[in-house]
Structures are given as structure tokens and as C-alpha cells.
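Retry 2 of 3 after timeout on previous attempt. Resubmitting C-alpha cells to design endpoint.
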């Protein structure tokens, strides 16, 4: 009963207890990575060398996965190590919390998202085939029965969309590609960006032109013709055909 009472008491006050321990850890720099305490009040910490290994954190909602990641990031910030944080769900709340944590330690943060100045377009570069493979790998397709057939059609259509975007000299992005998966939108896009060539026909026109007759003599230093009023030149009407 005493053990059960201690357990329930700790569970009830664990948030306040952990906050105090966290503040103490922040004020006293250490090479270890403070993780927290178990339900039985056992301290959990990792050695710095253990971060050289891959780690998988599993658990249901509210079991502390995000808190664990935040502890690892804070330890890296304390030790002045660089951090790359990628949130697969893209939650704005997580990004802002990570940014606030970095700013507490005086670290500059660069956020890549559709809401910030810095953005990352994973399909901007690469051949149409490479881009298609990237996008197709994001989904799970059945390879049995009709699944293989429709997967092949989807793959070829997606590559066609990317080629169309490139030929139209439009920047590739997920939004444009998603829009063009609709056939009507693709037809409208094709009409909008197709090259319309103007055909010019050769037309033969006959015009009349006045041409002076006679060859002018070359001038010299002794030539005084410039001081004498010139006589009217003889002209002829010449017909020309202009194409």
C-alpha cells in the first residue's frame, strides 16, 4: 500500500516535479542528455555517444514522444551542436515550439514551410522520370490484379504531367501537379500554354518608284558645283515587284 501511495502521489505531482528537475538541468550544463523520470521516480538520461545511433520512439498519444525529442534537441543546443528538425506532419505548433526553444539558447532558426519566407520544393529539379518516382514512392499501391494496371497508368500519367509543365516552362510544385491530375484542368492548362504560330504568306506587290537617270561624277577640290545651283535631275518611272 505504501508503494502504491507513493506511485499515485508521484503521478499526481509529476508535472511540477519534472519541471523543477528540468530547470535544474538547464542551469547546470552537462554532457549527458536528461530525458526525465519513470513512473517509479527513476531518473533516465543518455550519454552523448548514444546519440550516434539511430533511435525509434514509439507510443500512443500523450505518452511523451514529442517531449523526448525536445529533450534531445535541447541537449544538442546546450552543447552548441547543429540541429535539423523535420516534422513529417508539418504541424505549425511543433515548428514554433522548436523555434522558441532555439531562441532561448540564442540560436538562429531557419524555418522551411509554405507559411515562411524560406521554402523547399523537393520536385523543382530532376528529370520527369525522377520526379515521377519521388511522388509515386509517397503512396502505397497494390501490385496484384488490377492494382498493377492502374499503378502503371497513374505512373505514366504523372510523368506526362511533369513533362507538360516543363515544356510550358512553368515552375514545378506540388500544387500545380495536383491540379493537373484532373483531366479538365490539364486540358485548360495545355490550351493556355500551347504555342500558336502565325503563318505569314508571301504576297507579291507591284509598285512604282522614281529613279534618277545618269551617273554623278566624283567631286574634287577644284569642283565648284557646290556653289552653282544644281539642275533638275532626270527621272524615270520604274516598276518593281516586292515580295
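Retry 2 succeeded. Sequence:
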Amino acid at each position: 500500500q505504501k508503494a502504491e501511495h507513493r506511485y499515485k502521489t508521484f503521478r499526481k505531482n509529476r508535472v511540477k516535479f519534472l519541471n523543477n528537475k528540468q530547470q535544474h538541468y538547464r542551469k547546470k550544463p552537462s554532457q549527458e542528455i536528461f530525458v526525465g523520470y519513470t513512473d517509479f521516480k527513476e531518473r533516465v538520461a543518455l550519454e552523448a555517444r548514444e546519440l550516434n545511433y539511430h533511435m525509434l520512439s514509439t507510443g500512443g498519444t500523450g505518452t511523451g514522444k514529442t517531449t523526448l525529442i525536445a529533450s534531445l534537441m535541447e541537449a544538442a543546443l546546450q552543447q552548441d551542436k547543429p540541429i535539423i528538425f523535420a516534422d513529417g506532419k508539418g504541424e505549425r505548433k511543433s515548428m514554433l515550439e522548436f523555434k522558441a526553444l532555439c531562441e532561448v539558447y540564442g540560436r538562429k532558426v531557419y524555418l522551411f514551410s509554405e507559411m515562411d519566407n524560406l521554402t523547399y520544393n523537393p520536385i523543382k529539379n530532376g528529370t520527369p522520370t525522377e520526379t515521377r518516382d519521388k511522388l509515386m514512392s509517397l503512396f502505397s499501391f497494390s501490385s496484384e490484379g488490377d492494382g498493377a494496371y492502374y499503378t502503371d497508368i497513374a505512373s505514366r500519367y504523372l510523368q506526362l504531367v511533369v513533362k507538360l509543365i516543363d515544356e510550358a516552362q512553368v515552375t514545378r510544385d506540388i500544387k500545380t501537379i495536383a491540379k493537373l491530375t484532373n483531366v479538365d484542368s490539364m486540358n485548360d492548362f495545355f490550351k493556355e500554354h500551347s504555342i500558336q504560330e502565325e503563318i505569314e504568306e508571301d504576297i507579291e506587290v507591284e509598285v512604282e518608284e522614281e529613279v534618277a537617270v545618269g551617273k554623278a561624277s566624283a567631286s574634287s577640290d577644284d569642283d565648284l558645283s557646290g556653289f552653282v545651283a544644281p539642275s533638275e535631275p532626270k527621272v524615270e518611272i520604274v516598276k518593281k515587284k516586292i515580295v
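Attempt log closed. The longest helix spans residues 2-27.
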